[in-house]
Write a structure and sequence with these properties.
The chain is of the alpha/beta class. The chain folds into two domains: 305 residues, TIM Barrel (Alpha-Beta Barrel), CATH 3.20.20; 344 residues, TIM Barrel (Alpha-Beta Barrel). Strands 1-14-13-12-11-10-8-2 form an eight-stranded parallel beta sheet. Strands 15-20-21-22-23-24 form a six-stranded parallel beta sheet. Strand 10, helix 8 and strand 11 form a beta-alpha-beta unit. The structure holds glutamine (GLN) and zinc ion. The site of zinc ion has 6 residues, from loops.
């Protein structure tokens, strides 16, 4: 029989129950017992949902209170020294301290670094290894959760991150990255113990995620991979091991993967359909089962079931039914929970979509088709074919005037009038800012009152005028505060924006929105990505009246605030019926109009956030150039329609720039602000060695932690910056927007930041 398997399910809950529980625990409003009980309840609900859908193999240990990599760190006991972990099992408060930093009971520790999970908008906690890191099982979570599933009468397969991927996800204190593999000898006994224990508990199968098999690896990895998996096999000869790869194709690692001493290999056939035939060959040759990642775990469109059946039938013919598994392309963590709850979506659009729960149904349908033949699922296939046809021809999607405008784009539209040096001079004259100008990244705390007002406005209990007044009051409060603390370039604070992408999507044609389509971004934080379904255009100005109003309140310079085309694209569910480059260009033209309207309204500084440009980088180097070419062009098209004296800023978070500094420079923003505080300015190296010519604001305030940095540590960071970048090029700002923070933290932190800038002006006179 052909099996269907899931690789991971959204843990946040249909109504973000996990977010709410975790956050109230952090606030002290929920006991640890209750939090643990809530986790258990969610796991059970999700397992039952999967069981009832008819899935044959359900994952366990895909649940997490914060992050699955942090769970692995605890499981393997590699807790960095600063958390004073003294052995035994890592307790929940230490766990959260590692995730978020902690300032309580005399403890003052920073959080561990966080970074994007491959090219998704999910962030994981980066493992930190000491030079000869030891590993010792220090969490019972995976064993407890497996036992819990058994007790509930659900046979699950526990999921872990494979040893090589785990090491590669981390960083070693000496930064000698490839040396991480020297830690394998220390690490493998711990993995063997995990496998032995699970097998002893009765687990029949284990899923080991090795996403790095779908990335660029060096040659010697072939041998390393084989040895590692031979070693794991020895831990228990009977447990079925499924090695999963996702987000890209195996390409040059294909033979390595199939040579591993494991039972099955999972491949992503959404991202890399072209690898199918070769995988089939290798699976046949090596006698392995092949898990077909057919259902898109990264997007919300219904599967083309007929096409999937073609693939499945081919696989069965070659490998036999028992050696074929039907799966989502990756964990469903990256898709929203359930389309059923979406009562407001346009039914025609809704009919094109499938969220995580619906994807389980698709898996079940395909499994039935695989087992009983196409006739057994005839109605489902007919419906699926109709959906595909409807999307291909719908007038909702295809807009002629957008097409015409795209065709009229000229190379000049992607160029500023003059070079940076000329623009810089004009901008300095016009803006008259001090050395080390201070600014923020845009948002200020999204307070309870702001959220309440927005909720009331959405519900209709607050009318538009009342809502606008409430937001204007907030803008005024933010502007007054910034003046009082002495910031140089002000922002309006973005109170009217629920989210930096959704806000724009709501005002652009071609987008639609779910009500509850939340996806975890980091920890308890979720985002609700807009859904791009059709050609994009801007019917009316989107931000101008807010910027104008904010500017009217102050003599200081107000920075206009926009989200860039790549970030809008990257943080949305995108159409899968045209290349992303084309969608990006459509968004770019819409933003270009907005930039020009802001300039006309007297806004001299305009920031276009491209927080997501790096995470959009293809996972394989050979694909980078093409992506960077079109994404840089999209940024330039939206930012180049202005006068030389108008200063264009851009902002990027959680980015490493070493390998794309050339593209960053080509974007030619006058000022770029980046996230650098957690890495102690490490990220600036790239700008130094490249001799990056434009201005830079390296973040000095880690806004992802509730910790309040003091002036001395920010001066310290700025001194590190001055050591590598000329002072004339430097700005002083936080790592990112402040919307997730409270005023109680932001006020003292920004005051300290302004003081730090003043100190720097004295020091570097
Ligand atoms: N302007 C946005 C803000 O301050 C930028 C957020 C981001 O880069 N993620 O919230
Ligand atoms: Zn940011």
């Amino acid at each position: 029989m052909t099996h269907s398997i899931n690789l991971g399910f959204p843990r946040i809950g249909a109504h973000r129950e996990l977010k709410k529980a975790v956050e109230s625990y952090w606030k002290g409003a929920m006991s640890q017992e209750d939090l643990i009980a809530e986790g258990k309840k969610l796991r059970l609900t999700h397992w039952n949902l999967q069981k009832n859908s008819g899935l044959s193999s359900i994952p366990a240990n895909d649940f997490s209170f914060y992050d699955q990599v942090l769970d692995m760190i605890c499981l393997l006991g590699c807790v960095p020294e600063r958390y004073d972990f003294s052995g035994g099992n890592v307790d929940l408060d230490t766990y959260f301290a590692m995730a978020r930093g902690s300032q309580k009971d005399g403890q003052d520790v920073t959080a561990m670094e966080m970074t994007k999970w491959f090219d998704t908008n999910y962030h994981y906690i980066v493992p930190e290894f000491s030079k000869d890191q030891k590993f010792k099982l220090s969490s019972t979570k995976i064993f407890d959760e497996y036992a819990e599933s058994v007790e509930a009468g659900i046979q699950t397969h526990p999921v872990i991150i494979g040893p090589i991927s785990f090491l590669k996800l981390g960083k070693r204190e000496d930064n000698f990255t490839d040396c991480r593999l020297t830690l394998l000898d220390n690490l493998l006994p711990a993995y063997e113990e995990i496998i032995t224990k699970l097998a002893d508990q009765g687990a029949m199968a284990i899923q080991i995620d090795e996403p790095y098999l779908a990335m660029d690896l060096k040659e010697n990895y072939d041998e390393v991979y084989r040895e590692v998996y031979a070693c794991l096999r020895k831990a228990n000869p009977d447990i079925r091991i499924l090695v999963t790869t996702y987000f890209d194709g195996l390409r040059d690692n294909l033979e390595t993967a199939f040579a591993l001493d494991v039972n099955a290999i999972h491949v992503d056939l959404r991202r890399a359909p072209e690898q199918f035939e070769e995988c089939l060959e290798q699976a046949a040759k090596t006698g392995k089962a092949l898990s077909l990642g057919l259902i898109d775990g990264r997007n919300i469109w219904k599967n083309d079931l007929s096409h999937s059946m073609d693939i499945i039938e081919q696989a069965i013919e070659k490998l036999g039914a028992g050696n074929v598994m039907i799966a989502p392309s990756c964990s469903l963590l990256h898709t929203p929970f359930d389309l059923k709850n979406e009562t407001k979506l346009d039914p025609a659009l809704k009919n094109w979509m499938a969220f995580a729960t619906q994807k389980l149904d698709e898996l079940a349908i395909l499994q039935k088709g695989a087992t009983e033949g196409r006739d057994a699922i005839k109605p489902e296939l007919t419906a699926s074919d109709a959906v595909q046809k409807d999307r291909a021809t719908s007038e909702r999607i295809h807009n002629k005037s957008v097409q015409d405008r795209l065709n009229a784009v000229t190379p000049d539209m992607a160029k500023r009038k003059s070079n940076f040096a000329t623009r810089q001079k004009l901008q300095h004259e016009k803006l008259g800012l001090p050395k080390f100008p201070t600014t923020t990244i845009g948002s200020f705390p999204q307070t309870q009152e702001i959220r309440k007002a927005r909720a009331a406005f959405k519900k209709g209990t607050l009318n538009e005028a009342e809502y606008e007044t409430a937001m204007k009051d907030e803008v005024k409060r933010v502007v007054d505060y910034q003046e009082s603390v002495g910031l140089d370039v002000l922002v309006h604070g973005e109170p009217e924006r629920n989210d930096m992408v959704e806000y724009f999507g709501e005002q652009l044609d071609g987008f639609t929105f779910s009500k509850l389509g939340w996806v975890q971004s980091y920890g308890s934080r979720c985002v609700k990505p807009p859904i791009i379904y059709g050609d994009i255009s801007r019917p009316t100005p989107m931000t101008v009246k807010w910027a104008e109003y904010a500017q009217s309140l102050t003599d200081k310079k107000m920075k206009g605030m926009l989200t860039g085309p790549i970030t809008i694209l990257q943080w949305s569910f995108v159409r899968d019926d045209q290349p992303e480059s084309l969608t990006a260009k459509q968004i770019s033209l819409a933003i270009r109009d907005e930039v020009s309207d802001l300039e006309k309204a007297g806004i001299d500084i305009i920031q276009i956030d491209e927080a997501a440009i790096r995470e959009g980088l293809p996972l394989r180097k050979e694909d980078w150039k093409n992506y960077l070419d079109w994404s840089v062009e999209a940024f330039r098209i939206c930012s180049s329609g202005v006068e030389d004296s108008t200063q264009i800023h851009t902002h990027m978070c959680y980015s490493e720039f070493n390998d794309m500094i050339d593209a960053i420079a080509k974007m030619d923003a006058d000022v770029i602000s980046i996230e650098t505080s957690r890495s102690q300015m490490e990220l600036l190296d790239a700008f130094q060695s490249y001799k990056y010519p434009n201005e830079i604001g390296p973040g000095v305030y880690d806004i992802h932690s509730p910790r309040i940095p003091n002036t001395a540590e920010m001066v310290d960071l700025m001194e590190k910056a001055v050591a590598v970048i000329p002072a004339e090029q430097l700005w002083v700002n936080p790592d990112c927007g402040l919307k997730t923070r409270g005023w109680a933290e932001v006020e003292p932190a920004l005051k300290n930041m302004v003081d730090a800038a003043k100190e720097m002006r004295q020091k570097v006179a």
